[in-house]
Amino acid sequence: MTKKYGEIMDKQTQDVLELLEQNAKLTPEDISEMTRIPQKDVKKMIQSLEDAGIIRYYKAIIDWDLVENPYVYAFVQIKVSLERGHGYQKLADRICKFPEVRSLRLLSGEDYDLEFMVRGRSMKDVAFFVSDKIATMAQVQNTSTHFILKTYKEDGIIMEEPEEFKRLHVSF
To answer: Which residues does the UniProt record annotate as the domain Transcription regulator AsnC/Lrp ligand binding (predicted)?
Structure first.
């Protein structure tokens, strides 16, 4: 289990995390200017947060719809029967190892236990991945696949700029 970063995170640390979550390209200089925390302290704070595993990774948000050969994404929900003494962890570890799986979450509720996002080159690739690799696992009782047709917002970023309102010319 990952260790916690203190009991209560101070406001400055929280502010730095929120700024980096909004824009991972911000430099310590940028953050220092925005928060008035000395630059050397920002560098130490970021290093400490990385070492503690709180900052896991830096990534870009890609609009794959604008790329010539886009990926197909789907959410897959699964209902599982638990293995005694392991809970969901053993199955989650196994599913996480597939490179096609982009995220995996434990859900509350009665219908499904786990949900993951899967990526493939076609709907057929995704469907075969689910039927061949996931549905065949002994603990999996049921699957439900939902293909993503369009992404409007990803990680807080609006993926399409709104069209400008153009007033129609009216003549009498």
So the answer is: 78-151
